[in-house]
């Protein structure tokens, strides 16, 4: 069953590219946008995260933090973050637990890859409640960035 508006966001603790643990609890008192993406260095994923990078000032003005989560290793994510100049944390869900908890998970993806994060976007309020949840079945689709902004404006 998918997560939806009004659900409590699943707790997580993952490593960022600086090898530090980042937990959902670290964002208590702040709004949070989580972007799940299938794989670093791919076209649609880069478009998704670059869109967030380029609009980060807007999200910050609305009191929101942004993180990106994939099943890539933190070392791969570090290189990706450097190359694309991402100005928010990328978190490694290498063990695939967070992707599964958020129901954003392909058992089998392209090229028979097992256990890959689906493209998804969640807006979570200061108390850890989901206000927006979008999990895309097609990895070629992008999240609805306008809906994300509208949701933040209404929190």
UniProtKB/TrEMBL annotation:
The keyword Acetylation does not apply. Residues 3-155 form the Thioredoxin domain. Transmembrane segments: none annotated. Keywords: Oxidoreductase, Redox-active center. The keyword Oxidoreductase applies. Pfam families: AhpC-TSA. SUPFAM superfamilies: Thioredoxin-like. PANTHER family: THIOL PEROXIDASE. This is Redoxin domain-containing protein. It comes from Runella salmonicolor. The lineage of its organism: Bacteria, Pseudomonadati, Bacteroidota, Cytophagia, Cytophagales.
